[in-house]
Amino acid sequence: QVQLVESGGGSVQAGGSLRLSCAASGSTFGIIDSGWYRQAPGKQRELVARINNSGRTDYVDSVKGRFTISRDNALDTVYLQMNSLKYEDTAVYYCNVVRTTWGVKIEYWGQGTQVTVSP
To answer: Are 97 and 105 in contact (CB under 8 A)?
Structure first.
């Protein structure tokens, strides 16, 4: 089992910045992929950014150039630096990791952290 604890959400004005953190604990060996998703009211959850063990990153088009995902393997923590925040970035942000064991991939989710951007 992997436990994920998110922090860093809050309220900010448009143009501001926030950094989200997601600390993993438990059976973290075997985590191959980490990411951040978000869900706005009335919308489906969407992928925001991912980073794999090779350091390869992927971003949804709407955040490219503004958000940066990174990972500290020693701390088992993944970060999402969010700059130039827009009103439409308002959502609950969820941390996600994929762990593989005996060839089976299992996903784990954090509890979510609210990000509110005022116009």
So the answer is: no
Question: What six digits make up the tokens of 9?
Answer: 């959400």
8 A C-beta contact, residue 43 and residue 27: no
Strand partners, 46: 38
Residue 32 corresponds to which tokens in the numbers above? 């191959």
Assigned token pair, 109: 């989710």
Per-residue pLDDT reduced to its tens digit, 71-87 = 998 889 999 999 999 99
Maximum Cα interatomic distance, the chain, rounded to a whole number of Å = 48
User: 51, exposed or middle or buried, with CB in 10 Å at 0-12, 13-18, 19+?
Assistant: buried
